[in-house]
Amino acid sequence: MAGMSGIELQAEMLRRHCAKPVIMMTAYPTSAARQQTMTCGACAFLTKPHDPDALLDAIKAFTA
C-alpha cells in the first residue's frame, strides 16, 4: 500500500471510529505487529503465504 502500512490504516480506522472487520495479512510477521493489530481489534492475523482454510476460518468466525 502506498502512503501507509496496514497497521497504520487500521489505527486510523480505529481513530475515526470506523468499525469494519479487519483480517491482517503480512509477509513480515512480528509479535509486536500481531499484538498491535489484535489490540486494535483485528479479527485475525495471518502470515503470507496464507492458508486458504485459515482465511475462510477467520471470515466464518467473524460472520458467525
From TrEMBL:
SUPFAM superfamilies: CheY-like. This is Response regulatory domain-containing protein. Residues 1-63 form the Response regulatory domain. It comes from Puniceibacterium antarcticum. One of its GO terms (biological process) is phosphorelay signal transduction system. It comes from the Bacteria.
